Amino acid sequence: DQLIELGGKAKYRSQAASAAEVASQYQLKFNERATLVAIELLYFDALSAQQRASDLEAMMALSKHSLDIADKRFKVGDISQLDHKKIALDIARADNDYQMAKIDFATAKAELAKALGFDKSIMKAKLSQDWPNHEENLPQIDLEKIVNRPDLLANKNRTLAAENNRQFGRALRIPDVTVGLQYNHQPVTGDPARGTINTYSVGLSVPLFLRHSYQGDAQKAEIEYYRAKDAELRLAKDAYTDIQAQETDLEVKKERLTRAINSILPHAEQIAEKAEFAYSKGAINVLDLIDARRSLRQAKSEATQIRADFAKSLSTFKLATEIEEKP
Fold first, then answer.
1. How far apart are CA 316 and CA 40, in angstroms?
2. Which among 150, 218, 273, 308 is least buried, having the fewest CB atoms inside 10 angstroms?
3. How far are the Cα atoms of 49, 117, 284 from residue 100, in angstroms, in the given order?
4. Do residues 151 and 242 make contact, with C-beta atoms less than 8 angstroms apart?
């Protein structure tokens, strides 16, 4: 017996499988890139935590030097006990911030180690200062080519697979035929003169869809096709909108980072340095000194956070705009 499929069932089944395979290949490429970006985000979180801890450690060293000066001035009666306690309290608060920064750094490195599959040796390592250059031009995008992004190509091929499955579901309503060929060799016993009997027969069978004609399979294939098509169009539209929003967000963070590095942070460092010198000479009171220190700590912390936010936004933006170049 030989089954002969009609209506192109074999073709649709083969095309659906091929499209699903291509979709999986594109999705794998996108997932690989997304995994690398996820690790980059963890790395920048750990790097920013390391930077905050390093900045606070350096400021703690300066604060202890200022405390030594305050001790000397207090002993000679140049400052009151209240001012001396204010300085000590500010240094204690700064030390608490430093201890919390060390905890945050250890936690961030642990998350990075788990993502990379490293052992405990990474906890003793110092991360390289591999920040992206904020002075470089932002990546140029061509929204017309975003359709060639791997995840969108995967959705497109899923729709193609669903379309072929829909055609296959429709083709199920066309009955297949079975052609049979039979040969019988039957020897006749007891009468040698009669010899043997050989018979040949050809058969053709066609199913009759009396109570079942694959309506459910066909309707399910239709639903899956429109669901896949809707997902393809919706995700493509969302991709355009998200990229435009990410581009605006990235430009704003770049401007904030440039302002923080070129203006805010240098001014805060100059003010703190002059305040330390002025206080050592008795030219300013303790509140002005503490205010200058807090402003510097805040400026350094904000600059580090803005740098990390910019680096993370740049990584996600590159992922969203990385297309599959076709030969």
1. 9
2. 273
3. 10, 25, 31
4. no
